[in-house]
Design goal:
It is built from 3 helices and 2 strands, in the order H-H-H-E-E. The chain is mostly helical and 95 residues long. It has a domain of 38 residues. It has a two-stranded antiparallel sheet. The radius of gyration is 29 Å and the shape is flat.
Length: 95
């Protein structure tokens, strides 16, 4: 399928894109090539091929859910500039 420069202008206007006139022909060529590729893929016989609902239907290996680090909250609270009731207090930066 061939896309003309006028069609690229229409698409750019609908998408609210500013396209330089010098680039219109290259966009038309690139879009035409993309549509040609889609047409080639559409022509492939997919009879008997089960559609995938998601490419990651396979089971993912998960790590064991166990604690690997000790709780150092108290140590971090002690060296923090300002804390209250276990929370870190920071200066107000937005008025």
């Amino acid at each position: 399928m061939s896309i003309e420069v006028d069609e690229v202008k229409k698409i750019a206007k609908l998408a609210a894109l500013n396209v330089d006139d010098a680039d219109l022909q290259s966009y038309a060529t690139n879009l035409s090539n993309i549509l040609d590729l889609v047409a080639q893929m559409d022509a492939v016989d997919t009879t008997g091929v089960t559609p995938m609902s998601h490419p990651f239907d396979a089971v993912q290996r998960l790590r064991e859910d166990k604690v690997t680090e000790v709780d150092r909250r108290e140590a971090f609270q002690k060296i923090a500039p300002n804390t209250e009731d276990g929370l870190y207090l920071v200066p107000k930066v937005i008025e």
